[in-house]
Amino acid sequence: MISSLNDIAQHVNGVVIGDAATAITSISSIDDITPGSLVFADTPEYFKRAEDSAAAAIMTKNAPDNCSKPVLQVQNPMRAFIALIQHFHPQPQATVGIHPTAVIAADVILGQNVFIGPYVVIEEGSVIGDYCVLKSHIHIGRQVNLGNHTTVHAHVTIYDHCHIGSQVTIHASTVIGSDGFGYTFDEGKHQKIPHVGNVVVHDDVEIGANTAIDRATMGSTVIGQGTKIDNLVQVAHSVKLGKHNILCGFTGIAGSTQTGNNVIFAANCGISDHVRIDDGVILGARSGVPPHKHLLSGNIYIGSPARPKDLAIKQELGAARIPAMRKTIKNLTEQVAVLTKKMTQLETEQS
Question: What's the gap between Cα 78 and its chain centre?
Answer without folding.
Answer: 18
